[in-house]
Amino acid sequence: MCAVLMLLGQLERMNGEAMVRDVETARQITAKIFHLIQTQEKSGKEVMSKGSSGMEVILASLEVFTILRFSLSHLMLFYCYLSLGRGRRVGVFVSKGGTGILFQILITAIKELPPSEELMLQLHSLLAKVGPKDRKFGVKARLSGALNITVNLIKQNLQNTKLLLPCLQVLRVYSTNSVNAISLGKNGVVELMFKIVTPYSKKNTSLLKVALDALGALLKSKTNARRAVDGGHVPVLLALYQDWHRNDTRHRHMLIRKGLLVCLRNITNIKLGRKAFLDADGMRILYNSSTECLPVRTLDPLVNTSSLIMRKCFPKNRLPLPTIKSAFQYQLPHVPAVGPVAQLYSQPPGVDDVVDESDDNEETDADTENDTENDEDEKDQRSANDDIETDLNKLHPKKNPGRPFEELRVYERFFLELSEDFQVSNFVPMLTRFQVPTAQALSPKLVPKSGSQGDCNSTKGQHTLPSPSVPTPTPPAPLTPLELDTIHLTKDQDKKEEARIPSPDTCTTLSSLARPPSQGNWGSDCGSEGAEDEGGEGAVLEVPDTALLLPLHDPDLYVEMVKGTHSVPQYAEVAYPDYFGHVAPTFREPLQERVYGVQRSKIFQDTERLIHPNDIVDKVVYDLDIPSCPVIEDDGESLKFNSQFESGNLRKAVQIRKYEYDLVLNSDINSNHYHQWFYFEVSGMRVGTTYRFNIINSEKSNSQFNYGMQVLMYSVQEAISGRPRWVRTGTDICYYKNHFARSSIAAGGQKGKSYYTMTFSTSFSHKDDVCYFAYHYPYTYSTLKMHLSKLEALRTPQIYLRQDVLCKTLGGNGCPLLTITAMPESNSNDHICQFRNRPLIFLSARVHPGETNASWVMKGTLEFLMSTSPLAASLREAYIFKIIPMLNPDGVVNGNHRCSLSGEDLNRQWQNPNPELHPTIYHTKSLLQYLAHIQRAPLVFCDYHGHSRKKNVFMYGCSVKETVWQSNISATSSDLQEDLGYRALPKILSQIAPAFSMASCSFVVERSKESTARVVVWREIGVQCSYTMESTLCGCDQGKYKGLQIGTRELEEMGAQFCVALLRLKRLTGLRNHQHLLDLESDIIGTQAKVVSPTTYVMEEDEPPFLEPIDYSAESNDEDAEPENEHAAEVQGNPDHLDQLSDSETNHRD
Ligand SMILES: [Zn+2]
User: Which PROSITE patterns match (predicted)?
Assistant: First the structure.
C-alpha cells in the first residue's frame, strides 16, 4: 500500500543539497513515484491524501531539477500526472506554488540554445492548464519575464500549429490581466492576433477560437481598442463576422462567431470604435445577421451580444426638450448661493443643458490602469464599506440641544395633551361611554387582512358617528398654522410674502369629469374652462358608489379638498382615479415573469428607427413646454395625453410609430432630474390594439421593472361599471439603457451618461375610455386631506384626536400634524397623570413624493389607530401618537419624485434644516427638540418610505455595535455598550407582518445618510429606536405574499401591523422578561454569521440572474461592460457547448 508514501518519505529526507549531491538517486526515486502514479490510480490518491504534502515534496524536487537543468522527462511525467485528474489536483498544484516553478523552468529552458521545441510545447501545455486556475497567473508571468517568451514563440511559429496552439492558450490567460494587456499591445500582439484570425478560413478552428479569445481580452484595454481602430480592423472584423455567419450554416462554430462579436463589443467601448463601427455599416450588418439568427435558439448568445453592441453604438440623440430644467419654475424666497437651485439657474445664457459635449469628450481615453493588480474582491469590499460611518464620536448619540428652549417653547401648543387637565365641564368619564351600545361595539374593526374578501364591507357601520345622545368630549381645537414670525426668525416679512404664490382663483373644474364617456371627446382639452358648463347640460356622470367599500373616500369632499390645494402650475383639473377612489382588487397580482428575449426585441425595435427611418412618425402629441396648449390637436390617429392634475408629471409625448409613444417625464420642480415617478392620462385609444409606451428619460441604473413589477392602470369605464381600481398592467416590460444622451449637467458632472428606457406594452378593452398610468398607486395631498377629514368622523368618545397644522409649505399648503391617543379614563388625578405620561410614538411619511406606498402604509396606520378594535383601544391607552403623514406636500402636489420646491431632497436636510426653505423639516425637528428638552423624547420614531430596488418591507435603524462590526474600526468593549432594544420592533414585525423581512433590515449608520431623519433623530434627539421603514414598490419574495406584487391592501395591512407590533413591544417591555432579548442576541449572531444581510450601502439589489443578459448598468465608456450572466446564459442554453468553453470562461463559474 505504502509504496508511494515510502518513496515520498525518502525524497523528503533528501534535502535540497542532498539532491544536488545525489542527483541520480533523487531522479530514480521520482521516476518510480511517477511510474506508480501513472500506472495505479490508487497511488495518485495516496499522494493527495497525505495532507497534500506529497505534492509539496514533488514540487521541491522539481525545483531542484530545474536548477540542474534536466527536467524534460520528469516534466512529461508530471504532465501526465496532472492529466490524471482535473480540477482539484491543478488547484493543489497552484496553491503549492507550482505556477512559479513552471515559469522558472520556462526561463531556464529558453536559455538553452536552441531551445527544445518539445520542452516549450510541454511547458505551455502545462501552463495553459494551470493558468485559468491561478488568479495571480498574469502577474507571475509578467514578473518572471515569461510574457515575451510566449509572444516570441508565437511570432516564430505561426505556421507550426502544434506549438502555436498551447502558446495561444497561455497568451489568452496572460491577456486577461489588464496590465499585461497593455504591455502585450505595445509589443504588437494585437496586430499579431489579427494576422492569425484573418482571412476567413475553416482550417484550424480551434486555433482561431483561442486567438479570438486572446484578442477579445486584449481589446478590453482602451489603448488596444484604439490600436485596432487605427489599424482599420473594425471593417475587417465585421466582414469576417459576415463570412462566418454565411458559411457556418450548421452552426458548428458558434463560439468563433461569438468571439468575433466580443472583439467588436470591446472595441466599441471607446467612442472611436463606435464611430468606426457605424462607418462600416455595423448597425445594418449586425441587425440583419441577428434577424437571421433569431429563429435558431442556440444562436441566442450571438443575438444577445449583437443587441448589446447595437444599443451601445446607436448614435446618441438629444432628448426632445428645449431644456431639462423642469417645465415649471418656482421662485424661492431666497436662493442659497451654493444650493442646487442657484446652480440650476446660474448657467450662462445659451448653454444647452440637454446635450453637452460630454460624448465627444473621450479623447483622454488612454489607459489609466496603473501597475497594480486590481483584486476584484478587495475592491468590491472597499467600495461597499466606504459609506459606513467609522468615526466613533459620530457613532455615539449625542443629544444636541439644538435651539434654546426659549425658542422651542412655542411648540408647546402642539402638545396640549401633555398639559391637558380635562377639568372642563362636559368631560365625560370613560365608564359612561362604555355603556353606550354602538355599532362599533358589535363589529370591531380587525386588522385588515389581505385576501380576505368582504372585510371592506364589514367595516360598514363602524365608522358612524357616535350616537347623538352621547355627549362628545370637547374636540381639541385645531390650531392655526404656525406662522414663521411667531418663532423669532430673522427673515423679513416682505420676502416671505414673495414666497407665497398667489392663491389661484380656484374654480377647480373637473373638465372631463363633467362629461359622460358616451359623448366621446373625453380626456382633456386645452381650454378646460367652460367644461363645467357643458357638463351642466343634462349630462350625468355615473359616479361609482364606493361609499361602502371606501369609508374614507368621498368624491365631493375630494373636489373640495382640491380647491384648497396649491400647485405651482395651478392645476384646475382632477384626475378620475383620485375622484372615484381605488378599491383594491380581490384577485392576486403575481410578479410578472420576465419573458426571455424581451430586452433584445425592444433594442431591435429601437434599432429599426435607424435602419428604417421612414417608418418613424415622430409626431409630438403632448408638450408641456407649450403652456398655452400642451395637447396637440390632431386627426384622431394618435392617443391623447394629459397630466395636468395633482401629482401628474408627463412633460411630453411623441408618437414614434402608429402604436408606439416615447414619453418624457418632467423633472422635479426647480431641478433638472429625478425622473422616476409618473402619472398621466391617456384617451383616444383603439380597442384591442397593443400600444407600446417608452418612458425615455429614466435615470436609475436598474429598476424593479426588470424583476416582475408592472405599471398601474386605471380605467374610467371600469370604474363606472363598478370596478374603480388600479390594476397592475403591462407586458413586455423592461428597463434598459437607451440612446438618449444625458448631459453632464444633469448627471452630477459625469460625462457620457445615458438615460434609461422603461418600456411597457398594453392594450385597452373599452372604446371611449380614459385611462391612467402610474408608477405606483397615486396618493395625492388632496387625498390625504380628504382622508384626514373622514378620520375625524371615526372619532369615538374614547378617542383623543387632534389635527393641527404644523406649518405652511413654500407652496402654501398646510402640513398636518395629528395627535392620537385615548381619552383618560376619568378626570381623576391618577387617570390624567397616566394620560399625560404615556410614551410618545412619532411617525412621519412621504418626505419623498414618489414613494406613494408610504402614504398607503400611513393610511393603514391611521385607520387602525382610529378603529374600534380592542387592540387599537389598548394601543391608544398605551401611547400618544404624534403623526405627520406627509412631510412634503408640495412635492406630492406638483408631481415631484424626490424633492420639495427648493429642489432639494428633504430627507437630506435634517442636520440643518432651513426654516424658510425646508419648513416642514425645520418644524418637525423642532417638535422633537422640544420633546427632548422636556425629557419626553419619543420611544419610537419611524419615517415611512418606499424602496424602488428591493422587495418586501423592511427597516433601517441605527446601531453602534452593528456599524462597528461592519467596518474595520477597532473599538473598545465600552464603546460597544448598547441595548439591543432597537431590534425588538423589526423583530416583532417580522413575526406578525407577512410582507416584512428581517433579513433585509440593516442597522448600520452610513455617512451618506447622516442628514436623514433616522440618523439625526437617533443622534441628536437621542431616540434609540429611530427607523426608516421601507416598503417595496414591487412585491414580496418571501412570506405569505411571496411571488405577488404589492397592493394597497397589503400596504395598509402593513401600517396596521406596525401598530400591533408597537402594542406587543409595550407588553414585552412590561413583562420585564429579558428572554426576548436573548433571542435577539442569537438572532444577531445568526445574521452576522451569514453576512447576507443586504444593507443600504449595497446599492444594487440581489436579484437572481436571468437567462438573458441584462446589461443595463454598463456605461458605454465603461471598460468592464462584461454582462455577468452572459456565460451562464450560454451554458444553460447550450449544455453541449460546456466543454468547448474556454478555460478562462469556465473559471468564472468556479
Ligand atoms: Zn424615500
Answer: PEPTIDASE_M14
